[in-house]
Structure formats: C-alpha cells, structure tokens
Specification:
The protein is built from 16 helices and 47 strands. By secondary structure, the chain is of the alpha+beta class. Among the domains are: 121 residues, Roll (Nuclear Transport Factor 2, Chain: A), CATH 3.10.450; 176 residues, no CATH class; 146 residues, Neutral Protease, domain 2 (Orthogonal Bundle), CATH 1.10.390.10; 78 residues, Aminopeptidase N, middle-beta domain (Immunoglobulin-like, Sandwich), CATH 2.60.40. Strands 9-5-6-7-8-12-13-14-15 form a nine-stranded antiparallel sheet. It has an eight-stranded mixed sheet with strand order 19-22-17-16-28-32-30-31, with no helix packed on it. It has a six-stranded antiparallel sheet with strand order 11-10-20-21-18-27, with no helix packed on it. A hairpin with a 4-residue loop joins β14 and β15. α8 crosses α9. The N and C termini lie far apart (86 Å).
Amino acid sequence: MKNRLISSLFLFLLLAFILHPALHSAEQNLNDVILRIQNSITQKDVTAYLENFSDEIKAVEELNFNDKFDLFGMERAALFKTGETVLSENEAEVYIHALFQNSYSVIIETWHLSLLKLDDLWQVQEKNIVGNITSLYMVQIPSNRAERVESVEIEHEDIKLSFKNALLFYDNIPELETALVIIGKGDVHFSPSDSIEKHLLKLSYKKDFLKDELTYAYLRFSDQFFRNNIKIVKNSDDIDYQPTQKETSEAHSIFSRHYPRSFTVENSLNKELLSTLPQSDEAVIGFKGKKLGIFTYIYSPFTNEEINLYRWKDKKIINIYSPDSKEGEKRLFLSFARMFEVKNYQIDVSFEPEKSFLSGKAKIEVEPKVDSLDRLKFKLNPKLHILRITDEEGRALFYSQDRLRETLYVYFIRPSTKNKTCSIEIYYRGKLVPPELVADVIAGPQVYSWKGRFGVYIKFLPPDYETYLFSRSAIWYPAPSENDYFRARLKVTVPFPFQCISNGELIEETLLRDTEEVEDRADAKSAAFVFETKHPVKYLSFIVGKFTNAGEDTESLPIRHFYSSGIDFMRRGILQEAKNIVRFYEERFGPYPYGKLSVVRRLWITTGGHSPASFIILNELFQVQDGTVLVPGRSPVDLSRWKEYFIAHEIAHQWWGQAVTWKTYHDHWLSEGLAQFGAVQYLRQKHGDEVLETIFGKFSRWTEKKSKWGPIILGGRLTLQDPLAYQAIIYNKTTLALNMLMDLLGEESFYQVLKEFFRRHKYSAASTQDFIQTIEEISGKNLDVFFQGWFGSYSLPEVNVSHSVKKANGGYTLSLKIDQREAFIFPLWIEWIENGEKVKKMVIVDEVNEEFEIKLEGKPTKIKINPNSAVPGKFH
C-alpha cells in the first residue's frame, strides 16, 4: 500500500513538471539575471547594471549604484539569493542579500526584487531594501598609521595604564578611532572599588590591587572613550616615525591574538571575521604584565555588572562587578530577554555514538516583545557547523556567530511584529563529545586497581561507559540566550540497540532499517524516539545508552526506573523511594511540576547525578570482583552514607533548578542550596533528628574551611576560585542558612514561604530579592540584616558565650551572655541534661551583645552551646 502511494505521488510530481516546464525554465533564468547584476556590480559597469531594471526605476538605481561606490567608497560586491517565488511564467519575486565591501567596511542589504519577463528576459520592475542595513568593519593593525609618542595614559574607573616613549599603531578605519596597539615600557594599576572583589583579589595575589610592568597593550573602544579616557602626548621629534619590520610584525602578532576575542562575529555570507564598533563607553583593554601575564579588562555599560577582569592563562574571571554610580549618572542595560521569548521547539536530531557525530534540525517559534524585531540571539556550540537557516517562507537568513562566546545571531529579512509568533529553522551538524558535568558530582577514582580480599593489588581494565548525556552545557541545539521557558517536541534517532530518554513524555518509538519502519528487532539498524513536553522547561536534555526498563509505578505520578549496561544489580525499592520523596516535597514545596519522573541509573566515572526536567540521572561507580565499590575521596557534599541522599537531592531539583531557576549567577543557591536543604530534610524525616548532628557538623566544618572564598551570592564564580568552595558555600552554607531561617520563622511558616515562592515563580527565573520579598510579605519581618550577613558576606560569626546556673524561686536560672564581633542574626540552640532528660532550647541572637535567662525546674548539667553545629562560625 505504501509503495503504491509513493509511486502515485512520484507520477503526479512528474506530470506536474511536464505540464509546467515554463515555471522550471523561469527559475533557471532568474539565476541568469542575478548573475548579470552581480557581474555589472563587480565590473562597476553602471550601464550594464541598469539594463536589468525597468525604465521607471533606472534613475533611482543609478543614484544607488553611484552612492555605493562614490559616496560610501565600496570597492566590490557579492549577491546571495536567499529565496524566490515564481508567481507565473512571466512574474517572479526574489530576495537577495547584497554584500558590499571595501578595505575596511562592509554593508549588507536585503533586496526584494519584483521581476517581469519581457521579450524572454527578466527585468526588475521594483527593488526595495527590506529590514535594517547592517554595517560591519574589517579592522586591521598595523595600518598606514603609526607613531612614537612621549607618553600614553589610559584611565577608566578602577584601572590605569601608563606608557613612556611608546610606539602606537592605529587601526585602518578612517575618521574615527576604534583600536590601538601600544608597544613599550609601561605599567598598570588596577584596584576594584567593590569590597568583596578586593577581598577576592587579595586571596589570589595577597594584595587587593594589581600592579605590574607592561610590555604592550591592545585596546578596542568607542570614539567617545578614545577622546575622554586616552591621553597621548606626542613627540615632535618623531612625527614621521617609520616602524621597523620587527616592530610591525610584533604589532600584527598582538592584534591577531586579541582581535578575535571581542566585538567580532563570523558572518554567514563570506565566512569572514567582521567587527562591530563599540558603543557609548564600551571598551576592552588587553595587556601583558611581566609577572601577571595576559589579562583583559572589559567595560560594558549594557550589562548588569559593567567591569570584568579576565586572566587568559587559565581562562578565569578574576573580578566582575558594577562600580558605584556617580551622582546623576544613569546606567544603561539592554537585555535580549525583553526583545523576544522562545515559545516552542521542534527538534529532530540523530546521534552516532561511535563517531560522536550529531546532526539536527531545529524549528524555533519565538514571540517578539518589541516592535520591528530584526534579529534573534541564541547559544550554540561552535563545534556544530550550521548548514543553513531559513524563515517561515523557506528563505535563507543571514546570520553571524561569536564562536568565543558560543553565540549565534540570526537576522530577519523583514522585522517581525510585536506579540505575533514567528519561526525559523536551523540545520546543523558536527562532531560533539558530551562535556563532563561539574555540578552535583563527586570525583571518582582515576586509577583502576584495588586491594582485594587477600591483600593483593590487582589492576584491571576500566569498564565501558556506554551512556552519552547531552544537557545544557553541551549547547547541542540553538538554545535561548536568556532564561526562557518553552515547550518542545524532540525526535532523537540513534543506532539500534541504543535507546534514548529525554524530557517529557515518550509518545512514539520506531525501529528503522535505513529509512523504512520495521517491526522485527532483528531487522532494525536504528531507532527513533519522539518526546513531547506538556509543561514548560528551561532547557532540553537527552541521554543515549543501552537501558533496561526495571519497572514503573503509576499509582499517582508515573515513575519509571531504568539502568544502563554495566550495572548488574536492580536496586529494589528505588521506585518506592522516589515516590516517597516526591510526596515529601509536594507537602513542603508544592505540586510536582512535571507529568512524569524517570529515574536513570548509569555506570559512570563519578558519583552524583544530574536532574533535567522530568527525569534524573544517578551515577554509579564500577564494582570490582569482590563486590567492593571504588569510593571517591573527600567531598563537602558527599552524604552517600545515606543511600537516599543522591536521589533525594536530584528529585528536589525538579522544583528548585528546573521549575524555578535562577536569574543570575548571584542566585545559584536557589537551585543547589534549596535542593540540598530538601535532601537533608528528607534524610531527617526518614532517619530522625540524630542525622542532623553528623550532617550539620560536616557542613559547618566545610563552611568554616572555605568561607573565605566568598559569600553565597558569589554563586558559580566560587567554582573559579576553588571547586570545593562552591560546594561548601552554595550547597552546605545555604542549607545551614535556610535551616536557621526555618528556626526563626517556624517550620509551618517557612514551608508556607517556599510554597508561595514556588507558586509565584513556577516556570520562570527568580532572584534572591524575590525570595526575600516573599518571606517578608508572609512573615511580616524585615530580614535584610539576616540575608546580608549569611548570603551577602563571606564572614562568619565569632561569638563568645558564657553561662552560669543559679538557684531561683525553687528552681534554677540558666543565664547566657553573648558577645559577637559582627552583627549576625541567628537562632542559637542550647542543650543540657535536666532530671535525666535531654532538653533543647532556642534563643534568637540579633544584637552584638545580648543576655538571656532561662527558667528551669531542675539543675542543668552537660550544657552545650550550638550542639549540632547548626550555626557555622567560632563559638568560644
């Protein structure tokens, strides 16, 4: 039946072609007229150019032609047909990208041509430029401008560079300044105005400022920045200085190293690296210190935190912050999140594990939030090669890529209308090895040997790890550049017998032999899996492997259990455990945010896990022949002595990290901190309060050890300072702080806050301030001091506590005197034995110096202050 349908369809198309040969001929001839226009522009032959246009528009086109070469100084051009519509045998419409360029600039226009066939030749009746004209530049150093000067001084906010007797190489752009290479003896002084950034600098360099001798500097800047922030004192004796070949080569080498790193994009038409011009006070200053090495100072008034100091030897952000605003100064902040929202994806990918090769097609629906939206911005792995990008009418779109920042810009032919959904399709492919995940993992052993039961060390080959996880960090599809939530339909094709698990519901599974569907597994060469998300997600993930379906529980929420090849034990009870955890969190956080939950256990080189929307991955280490599991070393977050820990932590991420995510890196704790807190509370509920002494003791020790690296609001930047510091602060310190907050508010009120916070921000990004606002609205308390101390500071309490016991009114009075070095707010638990029973009492410390009296019936003994180490810091 299928073959008969295909044959009929082929015959129909063949007849259509035979019956309408004129349309096919018209399409062929359209290419001829475009070629004629191209050749006439290349030869700068205005007469030949005008022959392609009707008499009514020749005068206008002659003016346009001459302006390009005479007024704008263009020297050559290239035309790229982006789409055509043959309306009839004698009428057609064509869209063309026209690229004009000279030695330093590029102009890109999109032409809409309406053509009419006269005397067997196509002629342009109307030509309109649609969309915005794109102007880009080809910056070069060295150019024909160089000079030796007496001094150069660059001063901006918190940085100052000075050079004496320096050699300056200017860029090739006429009538404005945008780039400069300075060679010579100089010095740099950088001192961040932000107190936390000073502290971080001191940790790295033992000083809260940087000072070094320089050998060169590379600058990109706006013309305004050049006039206001760069002072050049010229040397009258060296006005006609001619640099040597060695000096010229050095300038070119410096320029070639730094130029691709900022204000540059690779365009899709001729694949050349083109440059935008810095705007307002934008500036990039690269410099090489004799001791410090190569750094880049970046200032962008269009971002939340304008100043960024970056060290290239280890690709590390040293400082990033916003300087204090000067009086009367207004900050400008531009976000693509305000310009459009991604609403839906339809993605079709195939992955070949043996070759690590991925190919895909992504249809992306967006909703403009501004009038006349002319471009889109996505994140895409630069290892993936873009084949083409088309709009809803199949027309090829112009795009550019910033490979260093993994950013893709797509430009509409015609600007899109506000609130009217539109779509594009992106075709791409390339070799892509899934990157290693760094969050929620604990490093496993690197040497495959163990001391067996008889005391003999045995080495063995590492196992085959046959799972491939593509998640957010892989940027395997054109992802939103902001925190957009969207729905999606994903089709993944893999070689048989590999399988795929992804976000949402599996709605279709097909076995294939080449492109034909088969039913017999023995005939299958590949398998296709189709998933649909019923609820919004913030990113898409899929894992490929050879999985065993170990069962499911569909009593309330569908929960499924899979394990990968290499795992030889089923781990009974995991479905019931997952069910209990979900129920526990629903009571405290709110309804489970997705339609199903898949638990995927895989053999891997690290313990830990990962939690995309609607499924979680639990890593398990290899078991050696005597049943021993190779256990990883110390980690701040390892609570694996309780087997429920990892699954509880990863399931908590379905609420915190997935359904509610963080707005900026300052808010990372909303994901990892709340998930860790939830896991600890589940362990407490299952095993009793006794577990808190061990857990909080460990968390406090690690917090005290790593707190110096920064506050909770430093977020992901802590990883750059010390990976263990990130876990100690974001996971552990946050858990302790949230536990203190629960003690301050009361358990019922605290979980009411979490439920309301989750309800307000479900399927969206939230901030620390959003969390504080929710708490203060529900509790009626001002918690600014609490959050500043525990979330905004790297300091910890230093507390002197003295106590005394006196008889009073037939009983006893326990008196406490508390003195703090800094003002922290915290609940302080005191524990003692009274009449043979353990008693605990909480007092709220909210002043630097405080005294408390506790009335008792019996005499207290074995008095303990902060018994579970629930408050990190020094207690004397």
